[in-house]
Amino acid sequence: MTQHRIAVIAGDGIGKEVVPEGLRALDAAARKFGIDLRFDEFDFASCDYYAKHGQMMPDDWKDRIGGHDAIFFGAVGWPDTVPDHVSLWGSLLKFRREFDQYVNLRPCRLMPGVPSPLANRKPGDIDFYVVRENTEGEYSSVGGRMYEGTEREIVFQESVFSRKGVDRILKFAFDLAQRRPKKHLTSATKSNGISITMPYWDERVEAMAKSYPDVHWDKFHIDILTAHFVRHPDRFDVVVASNLFGDILSDLGPACTGTIAIAPSANINPERLYPSLFEPVHGSAPDIAGKGIANPIGQIWCGAMMLEHLGYAEAGAAVLAAIEKVLAAGPGHAPLTPDMGGKASTQDLGKAIADAL
Amino acid sequence: MTQHRIAVIAGDGIGKEVVPEGLRALDAAARKFGIDLRFDEFDFASCDYYAKHGQMMPDDWKDRIGGHDAIFFGAVGWPDTVPDHVSLWGSLLKFRREFDQYVNLRPCRLMPGVPSPLANRKPGDIDFYVVRENTEGEYSSVGGRMYEGTEREIVFQESVFSRKGVDRILKFAFDLAQRRPKKHLTSATKSNGISITMPYWDERVEAMAKSYPDVHWDKFHIDILTAHFVRHPDRFDVVVASNLFGDILSDLGPACTGTIAIAPSANINPERLYPSLFEPVHGSAPDIAGKGIANPIGQIWCGAMMLEHLGYAEAGAAVLAAIEKVLAAGPGHAPLTPDMGGKASTQDLGKAIADAL
Ligand SMILES: CC(C)[C@H](C(=O)O)[C@@H](O)C(=O)O
Ligand SMILES: CC(C)[C@H](C(=O)O)[C@@H](O)C(=O)O
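Output (structure tokens, whole complex):
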């Protein structure tokens, strides 16, 4: 039996509360399917670590987790003590870049028992993936200020789109669309306003589409695309987007399905040269941290995606099924956390899901 | 009686169908309130003009409309013949910049009789403004390509935020918030990911807020903010955003209220050194152009905003009330266009609103 080494990083805030529940579900799945997972916990990539060491991670962070098979990540950020751009660029965004996790994959699915803010939608109606570019684009660290502190102050930041960076994310997205029954891909653009990089993105989509004659594709400007997410979420299958647009769409999609607190994401290096990282879409949520009421489902769903990534599709599906089973019982029956209208604790809900396994 | 000279530019597609209905309502309001409006129609800023002249506008466009009191604009763009970034940067975006219309003001309001895609919301629940920066930010024309056509190809585009540009839009938004009963301002940011320009935006918001101690303000990253638009649209009052974020939020907001086809926008030069421009949020809609079924309400609502801008608040309110009256009659009674579930033509709906005045 191969042992899989998982680096566990709880991070900040509710990350510390939901990660143990994710591990509980993973343990249950590992037992049931006979999978050998070894968990190594790390305290860095957190604002607590920063408070002690003046940096988010030790200098040798890459050596310490670079050899693991995956990273199981909670959340990072505690703006009261460390500005977000410092904590994020010093940890999560470093992982994404230095481990070349160029795919950020985020499912949007209407789940049973979860009230959607949209009228007249039911489970099965909405089921798509956002495929987000995760290493370049609008998230660059190139730029700066001139005439600082004066009336003439002016601030620049560069967006950077490389052929390699664009093509590889498009290829991943077209491959995924090709494997799905609907074989439909939607590209997010804004080439009418962002007139240099976005027309380039469109060009590369058109070029890549030629290799996938069986995939139907369309494109929408990001403004109207957000409108379509609200009005016609049933029309999407695979949505591919730049770093910033993907960031927006992968919060908006789960918001439309009512699942923002429970949505997972996978930061993937498809070539497996580096560990991939699995983290819920939600953040560290300082407002509810420490109360034991955070919803652990996003973290548990991350475990499902991680199992799939490690080659255990059946185990991953079982974890997802356990989540759905508990949710389907509905308010009054399932131990739901307050964000879902229940009174249960993080642990109650985590245990119920592990038990359902 | 002062005469107000209005430059009328119908543009492309459904612009040509809805602008006459906007003028019909303006005529009715002018008669009723004794306002002297003179309409001068121009055929430029359209793809038809481009087909004849190889450019979107004549060289002396600024002389021809720069002396008018306002521009009443339909829609521009016909991607089959002219790429969007060419048609837009050659017309609409030129107006915004060269007439220094640095405020793009867009109301989001749940209207009677308009079905919202959101569950359990009623008129009055949602009523806020998006105040969008309209001249700089992510919409720059600075950037370019290197290693073109090769595997190493790389494309850059600069975002540019100036102290002057940021402060003046923030001032407009805080002033507006201060005049409204709720006195609440929300700033859209992404300072955790867009780590150079967006922290600067946040700094300026914080500095500006000091001059408005009676305005409550908060800020959200754009990803979660789009989620809040769907989940808690009732919480907003004035939302201020950069050019790109404002573009997104001002499509998403109307989508949440079901009014994307009927939402107006005002491109304002508050100092009145140049004409302001009033245009619906929707575009030229090639898919339905020429059929006479486009919804004219966005254009008519623009007329209401223009009247208010010209100093006729009462007349503007009367136009809006006429729209609400017709909408409130509801499907089956009001002559609604197909996008609203009716069978009426653009003209039928336009006439009904003019009559209601
Ligand atoms: C057509 C396009 C360039 C424009 C914009 O992005 O500003 C439009 O979407 C708008 O919102 O007015
Ligand atoms: C925390 C932040 C930098 C991050 C991002 O924008 O990528 C988050 O919003 C996400 O979506 O993972």
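The radius of gyration of chain B is 20 Å.
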